[in-house]
Write a structure and sequence with these properties.
This protein is mainly alpha-helical and 83 residues long. Helices cover 70% and strands 0% of the residues. It is extended.
Length: 83
């Protein structure tokens, strides 16, 4: 199916800010936004919010990602299994 729901489209909008979309995802996103003004508005708002956050809090893309200790990973997994 080429045209996805608004929920999936907003997920693609958010995803594209973090990682490149596949060609299929790009086509689905563009097709949906051509028909849905709400999702187009959501994309504009999301980009605006992202730029404000970047401006206010800055980003340091050159810093290496922080690694989580194995103990913390285990604690999180244990906590999730208790639920």
């Amino acid at each position: 199916m080429l045209v996805k729901s608004c929920k999936i489209t907003t997920e693609l909008i958010d995803k594209q800010q973090l990682t490149p979309l596949t060609i299929k995802e790009k086509l689905q996103l563009q097709a949906h936004k051509a028909m849905c003004k709400t999702c187009s508005a959501y994309e504009n708002q999301s980009k605006t919010i992202d730029s404000f956050i970047t401006k206010w809090f800055g980003t340091n893309n050159s810093a290496p990602p922080e690694k989580m200790s194995e103990q913390k990973k285990k604690a999180i997994i244990d906590h999730l299994h208790k639920k």
